[in-house]
Amino acid sequence: MAELNFLDRYPSYRDTTRLDELRATEYSHLDHVYLDYTGAGVYAQAQLRAHHERLGSRTFGNPHSENPASVASTELVDSARRAVLRFLNADPAEYAVIFTPNASGACRLVGEAYPFGRGRDLVMTFDNHNSVNGIREFARRAGSRRRYVPLVPPDLRVASAAVDAALKPRKGLFAFPAQSNFTGVQHPLSWVEKAHDNGYDVLLDVAAYLPANPLDLSRVKPDFVPISWYKVLGYPTGVGCLVARRDALAKLRRPWFAGGTIAAVSVGAEWHQLAPDETAFEDGTLNFLHIPDVEFGLSWLTAIGPELIRERVRTLTGWLLDRLVVLRHANGNPMCHIYGPTGLDHRGGTVAFNLLDPDGRIVDERLVATEAATQGLSLRTGCFCNPGAGEGAFDIGRRQLRGSARWGVRTIDDYLTMIGLPSGGAVRVSFGVASTFGDVQRLLDFLEGTYRDRGADAAGLAPRLRC
Ligand SMILES: Cc1ncc(COP(=O)(O)O)c(C=O)c1O
Questions:
Q1: Is the CB of residue 228 below 6 angstroms from any atom belonging to ligand 1?
Q2: What is the CA radius of gyration of the chain?
Q3: Residue 107 catalytic?
Q4: Average pLDDT of each block of 10 consecutive residues along the chain (467 residues)?
Q5: Residue 47, ligand 1, Cβ within 6 A
Q6: The whole model's pTM is what?
Q7: Helix (H) or strand (E) holding 316
């Protein structure tokens, strides 16, 4: 019955049944209800086979050399660079691909080398992952002014007028996520050009966006694009990218050099010359046995069809939102408070919420995490490394936040008590390539069966020690 209602409301789900076939074959190792695609994607068996076949077929050596094993690795790494550019429809003359361990590594490369200083500001949306927020520490040390653009409740979007105001015509770096890893909000990509017009370079964090949405770098031209491939492809871990405009890379000043990054170096004269290309940013030996897996993963995803994945994620997200909004206790009070938009307009497949008890009190997210796990559901709980979205969600004022910084807190529980927050975080559900209607139904059955008409009792839960 529920499925018929769902199909009635989202008929295009029927066009994505190919994904059910793949779930039963290529993704059959998904042995429970996995709902954390914003945390990490899932890999297909084909990706594992391709890895084993490649490694079993010949010898691969350290890329920094001229021997056959080394050349074999270099060729595959370069081929993967080209594949990344093709996937993003980026012109190789305009964009470079720098391999990093993950998106955080890409953010750090930018932060530590960006020419911050007086006259160059850092502007960020409140909605940012900590790996982008952390760039502010480089900016602070260099004496740059930092400005955060606030979120507007209840949808937790950013008002375009506020972006205009923050991007005063000065130089600097503007950093924002294409999709929030907290609320799923998709911020306008048109901000990239707006920022350029105002003299800013742009870091567009696509870590949460790219797994189910296309990015076309021939149309939208951010300067720095951090990516974690395990989020897009499920496998490999340990490989990310900084995709960067070549002219923006030329502005960066690396604070050090390392093996692999230099064209020439002298110890006696304490002199070095960085490599003239993207390898200047690739410290040490690349993950040469896994980088080629990115190329295979991208061809796998392309063959499935990013649009198909997008449509499936869209329909499942719509249905989940529809149902969460109407879940009620017997006394008529809502069971759920959603953070961010409750409709599908300009949002991706990440939904954050808290469960409420019949008196409207928040059910502790640690309880939900434990009970979901015992029922075979992988949900994400906590603050998702996005404190700005959390502060927006709970509407915490600046004065409260400054107090906590002034008095100092040691654990996240201390911090919550100090600023009077009702909860340390939320529950997050996110969808991807192998998600099905059955997964959503299992989640909804669990939520209704476990929390309907039940009081919020947090007794006996382990303390929160970190965000
Ligand atoms: C939006 C966003 N940016 C950056 C990151 C950092 O990714 P990683 O931990 O792989 O470096 C994440 C991870 O969750 C994310 O969701």
A1: yes
A2: 23
A3: no
A4: 95 97 97 97 98 97 94 97 98 98 98 96 96 98 96 94 90 97 97 96 98 97 98 98 97 95 93 94 97 98 96 98 98 97 97 97 94 96 87 70 59 62 83 98 98 86 71
A5: no
A6: 0.95
A7: helix 306-326
